[in-house]
Fold this protein.
Amino acid sequence: MTMKLTKRDKILLYILVLVLMVVGVGYFLILPELDEAAQLRTQAQYLQQDYDALLLQQARIPTLEAQVGEAEAAIDGLEEPLYDAMTNAQVDSLLTGLLLSHGLEPRQMDITRSREALTEPYVFSGLPEANEKADAPLTLTTFCVSGSAIGTQEQWLDFLDTLSEACPAIRVCGFSLSAAQQLEEDVLVSVTELSYTLELYASSEMEAPEA
Amino acid sequence: MKKLKEIELLRRQRDIRSSRRDRGRRLGKALVLLLTAAVMLGLWRFSAVRSANAAREVNSLSDAIASDALTRDVARAGELELWLSQLSKAQQQLTQQREAMASYPTVSSAVLERLSQCGGEQVSLQLTSYNADTGLLKFEAVTGAVLDIPAYVVCLTDTGLFEQVNYSGYDFDSKAQVYAIRVECYLRADAGKAAAQ
């Protein structure tokens, strides 16, 4: 069976073919490509931003190294009055030596090491300050030393003078002087017993990143 | 007969012209179809090229970001930044610590000497205790002259060494025949340093 197409039908068919071609190619070929290109361009923009940020970070290395150098030098300066990293035995040796050199007879000493908090500044209140928990110090070790010794008030004051003049990294937290008796050649003699609490500050190393 | 031939010729001529016109129209239509197809394919090709270019750009940026040198440098910069922040914190802590250490009064022989000057020869002094947290300096002051006590307490206040001088009276020791002065003194932050100067 054959169908006779009129001229008008043929024109309509022709236009339909044209439209189908335009729509088909546009919808199935061009639009997906345009979508993909747009997505890739957006991705490229984000990547470019990331890349720029990384380049900026890379370019900051010399400045950061210079700043690290300055900070390390500043820390060295601030640590100058502190003792170098010490062991309990070294603290004992230092303080016992100081006591003996001032004629004081050490009787007892307790040393504890702490890196828990910084010293609170002195604010007169008439009451002991409640220390708030702060961040642990990074480059500072505090040795709390308490003990007792036998000696005179003058010897003790002499010892305190030495601490205030020559040992800026030792702080006297408190002391008390009381009368006591001790046996000397089978005879009880009156002496002054000094109980003290000191804090000794020493620096400690931080672990630097490898270059 | 001649007329009939002429008519036949004219018809043929007309048919030939008509068939030429039809062929021309068909050619024109085919050309339009071809041109449309060419334009559409050209557009497709153009968009494909653009998409390929974008893909190439994405790949090259990804390669650059993942490059060993850049990764190493960025990691180093991160480490340095972290180290710098730790150093800044340590610096701040050390400054704070030094300021705190310097804020405490200093109990020294100069302080005791200044206190002794108040009492002169009448009052004898014996240190008892010191608490740095509160600044409380305790000492036993004894005198034989009860009338000198108020002046002695005023003098202690005037030394400028104390934030507060709490005087609460005296007790007579009948055995030693002296008066023990009950006084509590809270040191100023600059005490000891000022006395030393």
